[in-house]
């Protein structure tokens, strides 16, 4: 399955932990050259080592033009080009309205949304050369579908990613580049573990499958969007949440028995 991916090169941003790390490992397993991008070189190199000999770690701040240029240059030098960009970099600090500062808002928007634009812009020429370029965005159900107190800036950034995606998909279709997004629900990552056991238990109870997802669930969705088999899909989203967004009220969950 997905034999079309063998030998291709993928950049994964925000890949030092959590979903990004899972995506990098899954793509390495599928036989791709993997460029692991993180702000910290030691963390990027540690994940690259887990991916194997066809992976490199690159330190880059993808919220800056210079950082994105550096990651592209490293990918081209190591592997000769770029076929796939997995724009995964993101943060989710909590701050409610009234306490959230301008700096709080700007940091989240820059890291989650501006970095998407800069990463795509930097990779664009190489993706065109690929002849079958793929851009896979890690968005979220939070913002586009749901909300959560303290995450208005995060929700805005994730909804913004989908607005960017739809127009980018139109503009890049003639260049044979697809643009799609995976929308995770509650996934068990290091960040989720930091929310505490009470939050995790409550989150699992609100999901019809009664469990949080794992990073492999998101990585497999990203792998599909990156594949040749998904070549006629663009501007689309795939919710991966165990049914989390389906119940219309707590009563719907109670009716499950």
Q: Please tell me how large the radius of gyration is.
A: 18 Å
Q: What is the count of helical runs?
A: 9
The amount of beta strand, in percent, is 5-15%
The CATH architecture comes to: 3-Layer(aba) Sandwich
Structural shape: globular
Assembly state: single chain
Structural class: alpha/beta
Number of domains: 1
Annotation, overall tally of beta strands: 7
Structure description:
It is a single chain. By secondary structure, this protein is of the alpha/beta class. The chain has a single domain, classed as NAD(P)-binding Rossmann-like Domain (Rossmann fold, 3-Layer(aba) Sandwich), CATH 3.40.50. It has helices spanning 18-29, 41-51, 65-79, 102-130, 152-172, 190-193, 197-205, 215-226, 250-254, and strands at 9-12, 33-38, 55-59, 84-87, 133-138, 177-184, 237-240. A seven-stranded parallel β-sheet has the order 3-2-1-4-5-6-7, with helices on both faces. It is globular.
